[in-house]
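REQUEST FORM: STRUCTURE PREDICTION
Request ID: SP-0412
Submitted by: Lab K.M.
Chain count: 1
Length (residues): 283
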Amino acid sequence: MTEERASIAYLGPEGTYCNEAALVFADKLGAPDAELLPCVSFTEVFEFVERGKSTFGVVATENALEGPVTATLDNFAFNSSAQILGVHVLDIHHCLITHPEATRDGILTIVSHVQALGQCRRFITREFPSIATVPVASTAESVKAAMADPTCAAIATRFAADLYGGIVIDDDIEDRLGNQTSFALIGRQGASSPLVGTRYKTSIALFMQQDRAGTLNMILSEFAYAGVNITMIQSRPTKQALGDYMFFLDLEGRADDPALQTALNCLRLKLREVKVLGTYPVD
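STATUS: Completed
RESULT:
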């Protein structure tokens, strides 16, 4: 029987940074011919994976300049049972892209994904101080908008400019060098990572019974007692009441490591929910 061709859902259209990350993951999976399925939002990527419309999905989790991608975190926390199977950090280099017939003086609007606009805020303020900025669904969508309107400039990748016939009039316009975005490869609930490494991380989401003094210290203590290293911790509102928060943590090790299992089982006795988001290689 012929093995079914793998498919990867990503935030489209073709030409986004998420598209680039999907190509990287396809190579890591040993599936360079994987079918790439563009989605209109990260939420739709999660839905494609959970409904079996795609084998895998790729979602952005955090940017070095703008911080966590809240749409992704909220899906992991509240809406989805998808598992993280792998991570990849992509270097981000933004370009200002226009229609071939556009002029710099004729630019009236700059469009891009809200994250890209935020990452190029200094450039926009310095070079186009009186120009309106308009967020769109993706960086690739911004290039399509620029190709339809010579008064509109896009912020996106050189890859997207080449793909849609745009002209790069400025490159490396991000506010700081070292701009990077972390992307996660996701699969359906119960899936184990098809990727192999020598070091692993486990991501979890923790929900408190109630907000009370010492809860965070108790959480940290359980991992300290078990000898588990926490590499990242951040809070997010639960969307149930003002001041009600939950926590995301990244931990060194696999979820089935005895020390990590002990810490998680102790927390399950003290917290409302301990949600394991996935175990995956980091090298």
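NOTES: Residues 200-281 form a domain with the Alpha-Beta Plaits fold (CATH 3.30.70.260).
Reviewed by: T.R.
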